[in-house]
Design brief:
The protein is of the alpha/beta class. It has 16 helices and five strands. The chain folds into two domains: 195 residues, 3-Layer(aba) Sandwich (Rossmann fold); 125 residues. The protein has a five-stranded parallel beta sheet, covered by helices on one side.
Length: 375
Amino acid sequence: MRLFKLIDQNKNLKFLQQAIENQKIANGYLFYGPEGSGSEGFALEFAAMLNCQNDGEKPCGVCGSCRKMRKLEHGNLTLVYPIPSVGNVKDEDPVAKLPKSTIEELQTQLARKADNPYHKIWLEKANNIPISKIRHIKRNIYLSAPEEGWKIIIVFDADLMNKESANAFLKILEEPPAKTTIIMTTSRIGRILPTIRSRCKPLYFSKLSNDEIRHFLDGTEYTEEEVQLMVNLADGNMTSVLNLMEQDIKKIKNSTLEIIRTIAGWSIRKIYDTVPQLAQISKTEPDMFRQILTSMNFWFRDAEMIRQELDDHELIHIDQRTTLQKFVDNYPDFDAFGINQEIDNCIDFISRNVYINLALMDMFFKIKKLIGRKK
């Protein structure tokens, strides 16, 4: 059985099971792959397998260890994740120095992670894993394990360790104590120091297929058109699916259409109203912001399919078929490829902390130019 609600990746699960059966547990593992592919969830599952008290199938889900792991409350489990800066910290865990409101939010995030392993732990202004956290682990790792079994350190978003943190962590990887293993997860393996990568057993988690995500959505209250849009917006990312399920999919579709109408109509007053509104969404609801821009990409892709008279069954925004046709009739020279490229560039700029309002305004101007003149 599986302790956590995980999808596929059976090949990787079998590899981990065999490592336990053969008693060949590496000092360090690097679970990597696209966001939402399950690397974080399988790190938790492996921790449960290693500490399960059942002599048969692991994890059993019923022993004391499994019950604690299921709630992420096992004494041998240490979770590391990006946190906001707390200034100078001597010997204490920097997490304990966070403001009370942030600690409460963190507790909520951990509870959601325990409930669904694809949930992404996210705290405002949490941009890196500070060296103070790594130093705290280094001081405590050689102490006796709080409970019988394996001590497990899981580092979520390991690529967010800065160079100082990564070098300090390297010392832990070089000489971990007995019955201790470290699991690092990342969706950006290129940002992990080569010296760290060379000391870890790599395990790749592939992107989930559309069929797997569609199967997950079977039996939900969404219409076929909404399921199709969610599957395409997710692009194999189960974390995105969960975020979409918490949001109003109709709001995303309506926001997409309203933004495109604003750009095509090009009312300067409306443009200057829309940009700060969209910028605010990017700050308070970053997942919805990305999904709106991705939805825009699919909208122009749909328009291109209509222009080429391709099969309507492949349209993502099928419920906007009439509106799409009007757009194609009014702007027959639009450059769908160029528009998609500008939207992708905007997403990339914002992910690199470029000034949001400026990036959005630049994207709006370039899309307007690529749409062309109204017929």
